[in-house]
Automatic annotation (TrEMBL):
<comment type="pathway">
    <text>Carbohydrate metabolism; tricarboxylic acid cycle; succinate from succinyl-CoA (ligase route): step 1/1.</text>
</comment>
<comment type="similarity">
    <text>Belongs to the succinate/malate CoA ligase alpha subunit family.</text>
</comment>
<dbReference type="GO" id="GO:0004775">
    <property type="term" value="F:succinate-CoA ligase (ADP-forming) activity"/>
</dbReference>
<dbReference type="InterPro" id="IPR005810">
    <property type="entry name" value="CoA_lig_alpha"/>
</dbReference>
<protein>
    <recommendedName>
        <fullName>Succinate--CoA ligase [ADP-forming] subunit alpha</fullName>
        <ecNumber>6.2.1.5</ecNumber>
    </recommendedName>
</protein>
<feature type="binding site">
    <location>
        <begin position="17"/>
        <end position="20"/>
    </location>
    <ligand>
        <name>CoA</name>
    </ligand>
</feature>
<feature type="binding site">
    <location>
        <begin position="96"/>
        <end position="98"/>
    </location>
    <ligand>
        <name>CoA</name>
    </ligand>
</feature>
<comment type="subunit">
    <text>Heterotetramer of two alpha and two beta subunits.</text>
</comment>
<feature type="active site" description="Tele-phosphohistidine intermediate">
    <location>
        <position position="247"/>
    </location>
</feature>
<keyword id="KW-0436">Ligase</keyword>
<dbReference type="InterPro" id="IPR017440">
    <property type="entry name" value="Cit_synth/succinyl-CoA_lig_AS"/>
</dbReference>
<dbReference type="InterPro" id="IPR003781">
    <property type="entry name" value="CoA-bd"/>
</dbReference>
<comment type="function">
    <text>Succinyl-CoA synthetase functions in the citric acid cycle (TCA), coupling the hydrolysis of succinyl-CoA to the synthesis of either ATP or GTP and thus represents the only step of substrate-level phosphorylation in the TCA. The alpha subunit of the enzyme binds the substrates coenzyme A and phosphate, while succinate binding and nucleotide specificity is provided by the beta subunit.</text>
</comment>
<dbReference type="InterPro" id="IPR036291">
    <property type="entry name" value="NAD(P)-bd_dom_sf"/>
</dbReference>
<feature type="binding site">
    <location>
        <position position="159"/>
    </location>
    <ligand>
        <name>substrate</name>
    </ligand>
</feature>
<dbReference type="InterPro" id="IPR016102">
    <property type="entry name" value="Succinyl-CoA_synth-like"/>
</dbReference>
<keyword id="KW-0547">Nucleotide-binding</keyword>
Length: 289
């Protein structure tokens, strides 16, 4: 079983005629994802490797019965692209684009409260249900179908933990990248709630990093609501206060929250073992199963 995407998901690629959009569309199709359409304003009527291109998401959804989109639109226009997707009947929008202006995401965040569509990202690697579908840039070859869910703010951490899990013969139900920006759609708590409700997910890995308080909120949710065991990893333990470390949301202000120590402490208090390395995370998961 899976959450959010499977082999029935019908995908629109927003920005399919751009370099990134075209390349990753080919990768998604090769993995088996059911990409039914693309969009690029002014290029409707063309096709990309046989996939029809429409001017708008609304046209693509209506003509091809799509239910999810993945956004490969440049940052200056990506906020509008996400807005356009939220104005359709899509169930899921995955925003891969990095560098969307914060003021644009603030408007998107407000719009999300008015619609039923779920947003992953922005600045995320996407989502994958092994052997069924991937939406985004994740390397499909390291994933294996199984019974462990994974949610992460970091693409690289996702790959490292999954590689260690797969090497131990531990497969995944679904892996979700939620993104490393200060304003994102789906949170850790949202994803954990979905995994807890999935009867085929027997354990969950949560990969966080310094900055913000999402991991502390997730720890509280785990303690209060989850029976499924969770293992954790927190990146950025040696980052100096005030220093931005890669992700826009990974900055510690010095207020005492958002540090690696506060996140690890909160998770430990919730009964979540936190590995010092991705391999230790896999060891904890192996102990659960």
């Amino acid at each position: 079983m899976s959450i959010l995407v499977d082999d029935d998901t019908r995908v629109v690629v927003q920005g399919i005629t751009g370099g990134e959009g075209k390349f990753h569309t080919q990768q998604m199709v090769e993995y088996g994802t059911n990409v039914v359409a693309g969009t690029s304003p002014g290029k409707g009527g063309q096709d990309v490797d046989g996939i029809p291109v429409y001017d708008t998401v609304d046209e693509a959804v209506e003509e091809e019965d799509a239910d999810a989109s993945v956004v490969f639109v440049p940052p200056a226009f990506a906020g509008d692209a996400v807005f356009e997707a939220l104005d359709t009947d899509l169930d899921l929008v995955v925003a891969i684009t990095e560098g969307i202006p914060t003021q644009d995401m603030a408007k998107v965040n407000k719009r999300l409260t008015e619609v039923d569509t779920r947003l992953l990202g922005p600045n995320c690697p996407g989502i994958i249900t092994p052997d069924e579908a991937k939406l985004g840039i994740l390397p499909g070859n390291i994933f294996e179908s199984g019974n462990v869910g994974l949610v992460s703010r970091s693409g690289t951490l996702t790959y490292q933990v999954v590689s260690n899990l797969t090497d131990r013969g531990i497969g995944q139900t679904t892996a979700i990248g939620i993104g490393g920006d200060p304003i994102i759609g789906t949170s850790f708590v949202d994803a954990l709630e979905l995994f807890e409700a999935d009867e085929d997910t027997d354990a969950v890995v949560m990969c966080g990093e310094i900055g913000g308080e999402d991991e502390e909120q997730a720890a509280h949710y785990i303690a209060e609501n989850m029976d499924t065991p969770v293992a954790g990893f927190i990146a950025g333990r040696t980052a100096p206060p005030g220093k931005r470390m890669g992700h826009a949301g990974a900055i510690v202000s010095g207020s005492g929250t958002g540090t690696a120590e506060s996140k690890i402490s909160a998770l430990n208090d919730a009964g979540v073992p936190v590995g010092d390395t991705p391999n230790e995370v896999a060891e904890h998961v192996e102990d659960f199963l």
